[in-house]
Amino acid sequence: MTTWHKASYCGDSSNCLSLGAGAQDNYFVRESETPNTVLAVTPASLRALIRATKAGRLPSCRVTHRCRTLNAGGPGAS
Fold this sequence. Notes:
Distance between the termini: 39 Å
Oligomer: single chain
Strand order of the largest sheet: 1-2-3-4
Number of strands: 4
Number of helices: 1
Low-confidence stretches: 62-78
Helix content: 10-25%
Largest sheet: 4 strands, antiparallel
Order of helices and strands: EEEEH
Mean pLDDT: 75
Shape: globular
Radius of gyration: 13 Å
C-alpha cells in the first residue's frame, strides 16, 4: 500500500498533488480530484516536473481541465 504525501503548497486546499514512493526508485503522483488516476514517474521526470513548476513553464488550465498546449519542447510539442 502506498503512503501518500500531500504537497505543502496546498495547505488546506482539496485540489492538490500527492506523491508516493514506488518500487525500484520510481514515484507515484496523483491529483486529489482524481485519486484513482496514478502516474508512475522516474526520479528524473519528477525533478523535471518540479523544475518546470517552479519556473512557471507549465500550461495554464481552466477549471474544466482543458489545457493549452505547452510549446516548450518535450512530448507533444511541435
